[in-house]
Specification:
This protein has helices at 14-20, 42-49, 124-139, 158-163, 188-200, 226-247, 303-315, 320-323, 329-333, 382-398, 408-413, 428-435, 441-446, 448-467, 471-477; strands spanning 26-31, 36-41, 54-57, 85-98, 104-112, 142-154, 205-210, 216-225, 250-252, 268-273, 347-349, 356-359, 370-373. The chain is α+β, with helices and mostly antiparallel strands. A hairpin with a 5-residue loop joins strand 4 (85-98) and strand 5.
Length: 481
């Protein structure tokens, strides 16, 4: 199985692959949204590449990020089928080399049902590929995207953080210093290593700087094809954590590590291009914008752009676990506009207070017209977040949806309208219940099989949270109740 957008120098045939690996004796492959994987002998790898793939234990879809089996049996992996193998299909187009691991060849895989050879519904890469295929086959369009991560960095290791019971961690740098030219020099090798090693791995970076918060960095990944963007985004976390181990630093993509400090976003940018490479959200004639636009905020959006936006807004409350998949992620949103972490169904031209920020002329050229989805935190899975955003937008285009709400500026200027704002689910429990509702938009765009599986994984997360006793509870209740 090969993606449409290949890494430069990636092999397209088995013979090219053999030549490429002629001086290697092992290959590394990675799977799943948290990049599990393994080394394979070159012979085993070549054998798998020449067939449908290789067997990989299905338990990776049956346990959580701490290898705890899910609370209830799920569709892909369960005791009844003995956690049978599923097929891991190597995507040759994802070829890269890991410069910090002896330049070992590296490939990503996608998963197939061993009986039907059809893509597994729960495979993260399958979700973004589904969206890309819908855009390409149904509309002759290509999905383009970008991702921005904010993340705290600590002068800790996995061992020291565990010994401290993940409390009193030492920030990499002190104070609140966004866009600082001084703070980056305190850990120069690490800061530049993140940038340089990413480039070697084929991950182009558009911007890399400090952000507000002790030890916080922000990295914006360069705009590209959406499938490749999702790969780059998941791999950037791998780069950061690998560089962190090298320099004794622990980067964290947790959405809200501290209650009294800003959270960490994982903003995504999306647009669609036609076969000529023209951005279909843009309006060619700039003077005054498009006649018939819904309002001033959308006057430089095409009609298709408005429909895409309407689709995202309509479906947003029903797909929140795809954008905010953790218990902690909803605490980032609890501050709302105060922390530029929107928790309502809102949009607006160049508004960082809105859930969907319209980026269009006059602030950018028409070709750069796009939507920034500001709801996800840095803990999001980019395959899910990007995939479902495009599926919602394409659904809006198919149904020719109209914008049914005014821009966020109307609510801000008229407090009487604020009661009309649709709030997003405030917790993972509420978000999962809404996603799994029989009539949810999530079921329409993702399919029942996926919603039942992924929803089950989120129900497991909620169950573990409900059983946990936190330090806050002990401090508040131990003595005085």
């Amino acid at each position: 199985m090969t993606s449409k957008i290949a890494t430069q120098g990636a092999p397209t045939t088995l013979e090219e692959l053999k030549i490429l690996l002629q001086d290697d004796n092992k290959v590394k492959v990675a799977v799943d949204g948290v990049l599990r994987g393994k080394f394979m002998s070159k012979d085993k790898f070549l054998s798998a590449a020449s067939s449908s793939g290789f067997g990989f234990c299905s338990v990776i879809f049956g346990w959580d990020i701490h290898d705890t089996v899910y609370s209830r049996e799920l569709l892909i992996s369960n005791k009844q089928n003995g956690y049978r193998d599923i097929l891991a299909s190597i995507d040759l187009a994802t070829y890269r080399r890991l410069p910090w691991e002896d330049n070992v060849p590296f490939f990503l895989v996608s998963f197939l049902d061993p009986d039907t050879l059809e893509p597994l519904c729960a495979d993260p890469r399958g979700v973004i590929k589904k969206a890309s295929d819908v855009a390409s086959k149904k509309y002759q369009l290509t999905c383009s995207a970008g991702v921005e991560y904010e993340y705290y960095n600590f002068k800790e290791t996995a061992e020291s953080a565990s010994e401290k019971k993940f409390s009193n961690l030492q920030p990499l740098t002190p104070g609140m210093h966004g866009y600082s030219l001084l703070r980056t020099q305190l850990n120069n090798d690490y800061f530049h290593g993140l940038f340089n090693e990413s480039l070697k791995l084929g991950i182009e970076i558009e911007g890399h700087h400090t952000e507000t918060g002790p030890g916080v960095l922000e990295t914006a990944l360069a705009y590209t094809d959406a499938v490749r963007m999702a790969d780059n985004a998941i791999l950037y976390k791998y780069v950061a954590k690998s560089m962190g181990m090298k320099f004794g630093i622990l980067p964290s993509f947790m959405a809200k590590p501290w209650g009294n400090l800003p959270g960490c976003s994982g903003h995504i940018h999306v647009s669609l291009k036609d076969l000529d490479g023209i951005n279909i959200f843009s309006v060619p004639e700039l003077r005054g914008g498009r006649a018939g636009a819904a309002n001033d905020d959308t006057r430089y959006l095409s009609e298709k752009g408005e429909q895409f936006l309407a689709g995202v807004l309509e479906g947003l409350p029903d797909v929140m676990p795809m954008l905010v998949p953790t218990i902690n992620g909803y605490k980032r949103l609890s501050g709302g506009e105060a922390f530029w972490a929107p928790n309502a169904v809102t949009y607006g031209y160049d508004s960082r207070a809105a859930s969907v920020r319209i980026i269009s002329p006059p602030s950018v050229p028409p070709a750069a017209t796009r939507f920034e989805i500001r709801v996800p935190g840095a803990d999001m899975n980019p395959y899910f977040a990007l995939g479902v955003t495009f599926l919602l937008g394409l659904r809006g285009m198919e149904k020719q949806l109209k914008l049914s709400i005014p821009p966020i500026s109307a609510y801000q200027s008229n407090p009487a309208l604020r009661d009309q704002v649709t709030m997003l689910p405030p917790s993972l429990k509420a978000a999962t219940e809404r996603m799994m509702h029989p009539n949810s938009v999530a079921r329409e765009v993702l399919g029942n099989e996926f919603v039942e599986h992924f929803g089950g994984t989120r129900q497991h997360e909620v169950k573990l949270w409900n059983q946990a006793v936190t330090s806050w509870e002990v401090e508040r209740y131990l003595e005085l109740v």
